[in-house]
């Protein structure tokens, strides 16, 4: 059981708290407005119990000290920007470097470490708002971001993102929840069965920056048919070596920016399946290869190597430096919109 008081703190003059959303069938999602982080998702299982399918921590204090981006809203730019540099309208911008020589997930003071304004609209819905000031972590423009979390009655969690800017900027918003469909603290996710609706992915260089787009055909990255994660994760393959496992952006099979099915994952011990739907063109499949057991998880077990996985819906990494990728530029007067749904079946 999470203790709400462990989440009630004041940071930079703003109050943090823990909010609980519920639907009719007993699905429950706990979210803190510190980083807009999903702390737990209780999915109703067959035998009248619930299974918590999310890796998380039990207090704000622990979230302040973690480096995995557990459950967090990521911005302004989810994933990497090469050497933290990009140009817009002839001007070059330099971001904080926080991942080798690159910028990752919006910098150390990214959205995951900000206190969002929160309003619980009803039992099902939480509205979060954050104003990212012009120049924050090196990004141009005052960016107003609204994220709405809704727990729907079909046992899905919907995340709706909206943003606008007063100066041309780049953004790539996502959520970095780590899932274990067998239950938080139940061990490695290597037995999970995964399907990804993508014929192609963006292979990366040694620093995990994309070097193009390639087919998954004939590689251990092919998840077009349901496959156990552990079957090929340690196969001899340059891409798997670089990332110490799966940590790759998939180019989703879709026509435009319609909401479409990106992936599904099943935990064989619980029998729970999660389906992922998104309007985004890409999805990072990350198998927790950099989790190192240094943080105590809310389950009582450390958050350890490959004990949970992320399905981060997104635009492609380093898009500002790849004009051939779908654009991540947002101009004044435009509204950025994105939706992702995690739906649970048991
Ligand atoms: C990245 C990983 C990174 C992780 C941070 C993922 O989105 O792809 O390379 O280590 O985030 O926890």
Task: Please provide a written account of the structure.
The structure is a single chain. With 346 residues, the protein is mainly beta. The protein has one domain: Distorted Sandwich (Beta-galactosidase, Chain A, domain 5). The chain is 4% helix and 39% strand. The strands form eight sheets. Strands 12-13-14-15-28-24-23-18-21 form a nine-stranded antiparallel sheet. The chain has a five-stranded antiparallel sheet with strand order 20-19-22-25-26. Strand 14 and strand 15 form a beta hairpin. The longest helix has 6 residues. The two termini are 22 Å apart. The mean pLDDT is 97. It binds beta-D-glucopyranose. Beta-D-glucopyranose binds next to strand 25. The site of beta-D-glucopyranose has 9 residues, from strand 25. Its main location: cytoplasm. It catalyses: alpha-D-glucose = beta-D-glucose. It is found in: Cytoplasm. Its cofactor is Ca(2+). It comes from Hufsiella arboris.
Shape, please?
A: globular
**Distance linking N and C termini:** 22 Å
Domains (count):
1
- CATH architecture, by name, is Distorted Sandwich
How many helices? The count is: 3
Estimate the strand proportion: 35-45%
Mean pLDDT across the residues is 97
The SS-based structural class is mainly beta
Catalytic activity: alpha-D-glucose = beta-D-glucose
Keywords: Calcium, Carbohydrate metabolism, Cytoplasm, Isomerase, Phosphoprotein
Protein name: Aldose 1-epimerase
GO cellular component, one term: cytoplasm
């Amino acid at each position: 059981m999470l203790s709400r008081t462990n989440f009630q703190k004041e940071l930079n003059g703003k109050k943090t708290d823990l909010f609980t959303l519920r639907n009719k069938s007993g699905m429950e999602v706990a979210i803190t407005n510190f980083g807009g982080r999903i702390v737990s998702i209780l999915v109703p299982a067959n035998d009248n119990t619930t299974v918590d399918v999310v890796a998380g921590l039990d207090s704000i204090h622990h979230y302040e000290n973690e480096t995995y981006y557990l459950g967090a809203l990521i911005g302004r730019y989810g994933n990497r920007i090469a050497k933290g540099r990009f140009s817009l309208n002839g001007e070059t911008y330099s971001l904080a470097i926080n991942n080798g020589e690159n910028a990752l997930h919006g910098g150390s003071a990214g959205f995951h470490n900000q206190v969002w304004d929160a309003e619980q609209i009803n039992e099902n819905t939480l509205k979060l708002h954050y104003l990212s000031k012009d120049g924050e972590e090196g990004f141009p423009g005052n960016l107003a971001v609204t994220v709405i979390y809704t727990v729907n009655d079909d046992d899905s969690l919907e995340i709706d993102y909206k943003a606008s800017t007063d100066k041309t900027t780049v953004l790539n918003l996502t959520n970095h929840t780590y899932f274990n469909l067998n239950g938080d603290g139940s061990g490695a996710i290597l037995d999970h069965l995964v399907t990804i609706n993508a014929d192609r992915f963006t292979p990366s260089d040694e620093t995990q920056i994309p070097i193009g787009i390639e087919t998954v055909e004939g590689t251990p990255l092919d998840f077009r048919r349901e496959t156990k994660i552990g079957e090929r994760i340690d196969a001899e393959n340059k891409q798997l070596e670089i990332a110490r496992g799966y940590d790759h952006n998939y180019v989703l099979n879709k026509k435009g920016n319609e909401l479409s099915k990106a992936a599904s994952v099943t935990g064989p011990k619980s029998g729970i399946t999660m389906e992922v739907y998104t309007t985004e063109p890409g999805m990072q499949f990350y198998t927790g290869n950099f989790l190192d057991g240094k943080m105590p998880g809310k389950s009582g077990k450390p958050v350890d190597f490959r004990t949970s996985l992320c399905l981060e819906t997104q635009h492609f990494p380093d898009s500002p430096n790849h004009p051939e990728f779908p654009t991540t530029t947002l101009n004044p007067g435009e509204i950025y919109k994105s939706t992702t749904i995690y739906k649970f079946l048991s």
